[in-house]
Design brief:
This protein is mainly beta and 194 residues long. 12% of the residues lie in helices and 42% in strands. The protein has one domain.
């Protein structure tokens, strides 16, 4: 009898070790906003990499609707504090520079940054945060900003799935952009001393 109990215990223990936990099964689900990345090299060895999740328009009002103008109103996750848009979905959108760069003429050291945005009807604020590991922007802290720039969005043909890319490649500079719904939000990245 004791031998059977011992064998039953070993069988149960082996099942727990072999079967994946529920959390792992949750991670294996297909997300509605799929992860994507884009990389561009400037000069000889300066790489720019943007990693983000791609939400769809899906018939929703995006600008001034799903993505409010200015700071988003505080909620439970942000403990009531207003916060900027994470410039994508799910985890923070990140942008990484392998070497120091200029963004709209402002120096930004090499490194990985959380990329946040505050849309406006005529101008947008783009924020490069030293915190690149948060989930979304609910824990955003302005004291962690490495750089803020102001840019002007431009009308563009409809883009169903949010996308980042690079235009106007000039060897040592490029225009990075976010494109979603009917807007493109461009910002110039260039190499210092070029």
């Amino acid at each position: 009898m004791k031998r059977i109990n011992h064998l039953s215990y070993l069988l149960l223990l082996s099942l727990f070790l072999v079967l994946p936990p529920a959390a792992s099964a949750q991670q294996d689900k297909v997300r509605l906003s799929l992860m994507a990345s884009v990389m561009q090299r400037l000069g000889v060895n300066t790489d720019i990499t943007i990693v983000y999740s791609r939400p769809g328009v899906k018939g929703r009002k995006i600008w001034g609707g799903l993505v409010p103008y200015g700071m988003a109103p505080g909620n439970k996750e942000s403990k009531g504090k207003p916060f900027p848009w994470r410039a994508g979905a799910n985890e923070n959108t990140t942008i990484q520079f392998s070497k120091d760069v200029l963004v709209e003429g402002h120096r930004l050291p090499a490194g990985k940054y959380g990329l946040f945005m505050m849309p406006g009807k005529k101008e947008w604020i783009i924020i490069f945060s030293k915190n690149s590991t948060a989930w979304g922007s609910f824990s955003y802290n302005q004291a962690e900003d490495a750089l803020r720039i102001t840019v002007t969005p431009v009308e563009a043909p409809h883009m169903e799935w949010l996308m980042y890319g690079f235009d106007h490649l000039a060897g040592t500079s490029a225009i990075a952009y976010l494109w979603w719904d009917n807007l493109k939000v461009p910002f110039k990245i260039s190499l210092p001393n070029q």
